[in-house]
Each structure stands twice: as C-alpha cells, then as structure tokens.
Sequence to fold (177 residues):
Amino acid sequence: MHSLELNTKLYSGKQNLRQDLEKSDGALPDYDVSLINVLEENHQVMINTYNKVLQTAKDGNFINLQLLLVDLLTAFTKHIHVEDQLINGYLKILAKRQSRVEEKIITKYVLEIKDISITIFSFFSHNPFIPVNKKNSEMFIIELEVIGQILQDRIDREERILYPIFKNSRKTRHILS
Fold:
C-alpha cells in the first residue's frame, strides 16, 4: 500500500510549494502522478470505515463504535492534510496563472471544500451525542447519516472536478522511480 506520508515528502508544506513555484521559470513543478490514485484509495477507506461506523452504531456496539470513530476521524484528517498541502495549494497557484474566471472558479471550489471539512470536523468535535450510548444512539445515527452524505458529496466532487483539474494541469512524474 502506498503511504500518504511518502507523498507529503514531496512538499512538506504550502510554503515549500510556493517557494518552488517562485523559483521556477513560470512552469508549474512536476507532481507525483500516483497522488490522485492514493487519494482515491483513501476515499474508499473512508467510505468503508464510515459504513462500519454506521453499522456498528445501528448494532449498538458502542465500545467498538468509539474506536471506529477515531479511525474515521484519523483517516479524514490525514486525507485533508495531504489535499490541502499538495492539491489545493497547487491549484490556487495554477489558477492565478490562468484567467480571472478560472482563478475565481478554483478559489471558490477550494473554499467550498474547506467549508465541508469544517462541517465534518465539527461533527466529531462538537457532537452532543458522542460518546454514543443507548439513550442517544438514535439521534447520533441520524446525524451520522447526514455527515455520511456530506462526506460522499465531497468525495464525488473531488473525483469529478478537483482531481481532473490537477491531473490535466501539467506533465507528471513518478517520485518513487
């Protein structure tokens, strides 16, 4: 399995990406072609973990549910971190090199994705039904199903809109070869 940590070594932060772009001759730097595949695999892991969380909540297995919630939050956090560093920063800089219309579209899209992230993080950090127990499990499941739809919508939009822009923006290379 390809580790997200390997990809974060390409650019350990937004500042490094910006510095590379400023030093370049106006061309965008190469990126790891496997990054999108890794992020899409991550989507599957998050969806599978979400489905386990939902089923475990419905089954009333509250001890395992708490562990699965941590797994889901961890997977989502790592995914967001990598996307923010390696995709969103790249696309913002790409957008500035395009027309004002493209810049506005990409900037708006990246902000919408961030808003979705905030909603999902808020579910975990401010949910009155966590920890889940027999008394509050019904309300937790209702909220979890809403978050599941938000997560699925985000994944669909990333794979349908964001990743193709990234893939088509530049020549690619394999950083591990």
User: Anything to note?
Assistant: Residues 1-14 have pLDDT under 50 and may be disordered.
